[in-house]
Amino acid sequence: MKRDGISGLARFAVAWLFLTRVPLPVRVNLPDGAADAQGGKSDGMIPLAATVAAWPVVGLGIGVASGGALWAAAMLGLPPLAAAFLGLAV
Predict the structure, then answer these.
(1) 27-83 pLDDT per residue, tens
(2) N or C: which end of the chain has fewer CB within 10 A?
(3) With left for phi above 0 and alpha for psi between -120 and 50, is residue 79 left, alpha or beta?
(4) What is the dihedral of CA 7, 50, 47, 63, to 10 degrees?
(5) Model-level pTM?
(6) Rounded to whole angstroms, how far apart are CA atoms 82 and 66?
(7) Maximum Cα–Cα distance for the chain, whole Å?
(8) Which residues, listed in sequence order, are joined to residue 39 by a DSSP beta bridge?
């Protein structure tokens, strides 16, 4: 859904980049002209306030990944402390 000319994927990507340290292979949130110099297309800077609706989705993804790593470590028979460290490392 586009609101104010910003796609939902661009909103999610900016929220992901803001809330995590995991890079994405897409070029979003570049100022006008910066993406053209890098061979891409940009709609300009996306305000962070416009991405707030995507924050729960990003949190859900992070929680599922971390919980899955914790569950897998526990099922492999790792000690609880080691499983907890593995869950936090993801």
Answers:
(1) 766 655 555 555 555 556 788 888 999 999 999 999 999 999 999 999 999 999 999
(2) N
(3) beta
(4) -90
(5) 0.73
(6) 14
(7) 53
(8) none
